[in-house]
Specification:
Layout (H helix, E strand, L loop, with lengths): L1 H18 L3 E4 L2 E4 L9 E3 L11 H10 L3 E8 L5 E3 L20 H4 L20 H6 L6 E6 L5 H11 L6 E5 L1 H10 L4 E4 L6 H10 L4 E5 L6 H10 L3 E5 L4 H9 L4 E4 L2 H4 L2 H7 L2
Parallel strand pairs: 3-4, 3-11, 4-6, 6-7, 7-8, 8-9, 9-10, 10-11
Antiparallel strand pairs: 1-2, 4-5
Helix pairs in contact: 5-6
């Protein structure tokens, strides 16, 4: 009888592995872990070509287009709230003017973050980090570019832990920010953004710090294959910033890059299957 029970338990556990839904304990809660993509396209600031960047509509459009990873940028407001915007000021992507750090959340929420792109998006608001997470599914990667240091990386890591997103989200940040975040939340994933004078210096520094991701950039050369080989030997996933060119995307995958950042995810996503077929 005891052997039968043990067999049934073992069988159920093996099924949970196949399904990719093993329960993980974070903060006393159980999270169902879903399978995450091994490669694909990262939607830079959401669907930023067709929609106002770093907004809820842009993130929803990126998900609908089939993005395997979504990138966003996090800043702190004057009253210590995390909001999503690329620039240090609100000038370019809202109808306001000034530094994000000079706005309270209430004031930044009064801004129009859509009309600058098109009248179709009039009234779109600057999202908080929590609001952005709420529209991003649990089966894609979330690339959180931390802007500024200080409290921001720690707060971002703590929110990801609270929201049970530690398995799928990572902080793209400096070494100092990574250190601060890991002291607060040891399980946080890190993409090393401390780029060096040469790609090899960058690769070696990323391996040394035991980061989870790297984000290469610059001219695509055959040496990329050597970079990715060394990185993957150390369990590091490889992003690249950035291109929408089908030929360059194909080359990047051939050289072992996992997730190129693209600006036009709505139109680029259709290339993925065709590109990967020949690899």
């Amino acid at each position: 009888m005891k052997k039968t029970i043990l067999f049934v338990l073992a069988f159920c556990f093996s099924l949970s592995i196949v399904e990719g839904n093993i329960g993980l304990a974070f903060n006393g809660k159980t999270e169902k872990r879903k399978d995450l993509p091994v490669h694909g396209f990262c939607a830079h600031r959401g669907a930023m070509v067709t929609h106002p960047e770093n907004t809820i509509v842009a993130f929803k459009a990126a998900v609908e287009a089939g993005a395997q990873m979504v990138e966003l940028d996090v800043w702190l407001t004057q009253d210590g709230k995390m909001v999503i915007m690329h620039d240090e000021t609100v000038d370019r992507t809202t109808n306001g003017s000034g530094r994000i750090s000079d706005f309270t959340l209430a004031k930044i929420k009064k801004l129009d973050a859509g009309s600058w792109k098109s009248s179709d998006f009039e009234g779109e608001k600057v999202p908080t980090f929590e609001e952005a997470l709420s529209v991003l599914p649990r089966n894609i990667w979330i690339n959180v570019h931390v802007k500024g240091e200080g409290e921001t990386p720690v707060m971002a890591a703590k929110l990801l832990q609270k929201e049970n997103r530690l398995n799928q989200a990572f902080l793209a940040c400096s070494g100092k920010a990574a250190k601060d975040a890991k002291e607060a939340v040891p399980g946080i994933l890190i993409c090393n953004m401390d780029r060096q004078d040469s790609n090899w210096d960058y690769v070696n520094a990323t391996i040394k710090m035991k980061a989870n991701f790297i984000q290469l950039k610059g001219k695509i050369t055959p040496e990329f294959a050597e970079y990715t080989k060394a990185l993957k030997k150390n369990g590091i996933r490889v992003n690249y910033f950035g291109t929408d060119s089908p030929d360059e995307l194909k080359l990047l995958f051939e050289y072992g890059v996992d997730f190129p950042l693209v600006n036009d995810i709505v139109h680029t996503s259709g290339y993925l299957e065709t590109i990967l077929e020949g690899l």
